[in-house]
């Protein structure tokens, strides 16, 4: 598995490689304006996938310190270790949120609960992990997933959270995420008879498309092969653009872009940078089609390992980690965008999203018509 170059190191290497080739950094492009000439980032022999770092060694750097009140009853309970899966590196928004959750759980439980956080997809893709857990596997207890991942397993309510252009802003999302309605959504897996339960929601920033060759308007994506997961909504959105949806596991996306299996994909900006995708797809279109809603789930087997007091610790830690995610997400996204621009990526600001929304009209209608009343409740949190 090849290693990703992260954060500032990535920006520096890209800048140096471009300079060595005689290229200059690309300037930001306004949608509808002139396209800038794109200089492809130099190929490297290393992979986009990095090995997971030991979470405990990075916790102090990635999660801000908090004074926790120890649950004395939980602290007196038998010790238990829970394995947690994360597909992204720990320096991303989701990675830092995971670390905060781990820190809170271990602190509040007085050490009776420890979390072995395995990041960078070393335990498999989100679907691999869910497949294992839902099949009764016991090697993974907790997973941070994209909310839309549950749609492949019958999550009708979860599906609504990944419908394009649902959340107008972060404030809109957080009004929903901290509502009683969100609690109902978290309970959906249990209602469906799935052996997992949702602990809390968060977000990893708005999702944007990135491509090997420049794209400025939605019509520029027509005919291109765009990576999708198993999510039918994502597939419908890409089809609405006139592009060809191509299923590629996340941990194979770097090589798929590198070899031309796909021409582009979409991710939140933090994941785009940390997974070294600018090296193989140096064009980023800030269309913000979907807010990346995340959910932390625990298996029934993992939940059963805990005493009632320890279960309360996880619930409290979830509230803390959710608040932390809200606190860091927007600022982290701004910092990441600055790094992306300075690295020479061709960044396209989409000033008119109407054509993008129009292209998604069919998938929005098809995905919400059977739950129109419930979907409207989500939309109403915008006011």
Task: Chart the SSEs and their pairings.
Layout: H1 7-20, E1 29-30, H2 55-62, H3 72-75, E2 80-85, H4 93-108, E3 113-118, H5 126-134, E4 142-146, H6 156-160, H7 170-177, H8 180-186, H9 188-191, E5 196-211, E6 225-228, H10 232-240, E7 244-247, H11 253-259, E8 264-268, H12 269-274, E9 283-299, H13 300-304, H14 308-342, E10 346-349, H15 354-359, H16 361-368, H17 372-380
Parallel strand pairs: 1-10, 2-3, 2-4, 6-7, 9-10
Antiparallel strand pairs: 4-9, 5-8, 5-9
Helix pairs in contact: 1-14, 2-4, 4-14, 10-16
Structure, explained:
The protein is of the alpha/beta class and 383 residues long. 42% of the residues lie in helices and 18% in strands. The protein has 17 helices and ten strands. It has helices at residues 7-20, 55-62, 72-75, 93-108, 126-134, 156-160, 170-177, 180-186, 188-191, 232-240, 253-259, 269-274, 300-304, 308-342, 354-359, 361-368, 372-380, and strands at 29-30, 80-85, 113-118, 142-146, 196-211, 225-228, 244-247, 264-268, 283-299, 346-349. Strand 2, helix 4 and strand 3 form a beta-alpha-beta unit. Helix 1 (7-20) packs parallel to helix 14 (308-342). Residues 1-62 have low confidence and may be disordered.
């Amino acid at each position: 598995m090849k290693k990703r170059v992260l954060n500032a190191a990535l920006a520096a290497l890209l800048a140096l490689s471009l300079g060595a080739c005689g290229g200059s950094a690309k300037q930001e492009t306004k949608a509808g304006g002139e396209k800038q000439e794109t200089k492809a980032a130099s190929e490297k022999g290393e992979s986009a996938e990095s090995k997971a770092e030991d979470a405990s060694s990075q916790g102090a750097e990635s999660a801000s310190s908090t004074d926790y009140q120890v649950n004395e009853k939980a602290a007196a309970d038998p010790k238990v270790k829970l394995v947690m899966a994360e597909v992204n590196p720990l320096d991303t928004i989701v990675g830092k949120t995971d670390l905060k959750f781990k820190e809170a759980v271990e602190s509040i439980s007085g050490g009776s609960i420890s979390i072995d956080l395995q990041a960078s997809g070393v335990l498999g893709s989100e679907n691999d992990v869910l497949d294992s857990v839902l099949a009764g596997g016991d090697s993974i207890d907790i997973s941070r997933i994209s909310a839309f991942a549950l749609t492949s397993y019958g999550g009708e309510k979860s599906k609504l959270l990944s419908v394009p252009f649902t959340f107008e802003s972060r404030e809109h999302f957080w009004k929903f995420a901290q509502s009683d309605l969100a609690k109902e959504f978290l309970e959906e897996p249990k209602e469906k008879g799935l052996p997992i339960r949702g602990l809390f929601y968060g977000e990893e920033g708005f999702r944007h498309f990135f491509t090997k060759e420049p794209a400025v308007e939605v019509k520029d994506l027509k005919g291109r092969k765009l990576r999708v997961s198993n999510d039918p909504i994502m597939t419908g959105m890409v089809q609405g653009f006139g592009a060809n949806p191509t299923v590629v596991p996340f941990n194979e996306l770097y090589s798929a872009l590198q070899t031309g299996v796909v021409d582009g994909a979409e991710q939140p900006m933090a994941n785009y940078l940390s997974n070294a995708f600018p090296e193989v797809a140096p064009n980023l279109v800030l269309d913000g089609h979907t807010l990346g809603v995340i959910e932390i789930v625990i298996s029934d087997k993992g939940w059963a390992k805990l005493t009632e007091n320890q279960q309360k610790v996880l619930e409290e830690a979830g509230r803390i980690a959710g608040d932390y995610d809200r606190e860091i997400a927007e600022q982290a996204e701004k910092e990441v965008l600055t790094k992306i621009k300075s690295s020479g990526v061709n960044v396209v600001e989409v000033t008119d999203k109407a054509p993008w929304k129009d292209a998604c009209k069919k998938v929005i209608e098809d995905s919400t018509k059977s739950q129109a009343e419930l979907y409207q409740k989500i939309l109403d949190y915008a006011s």
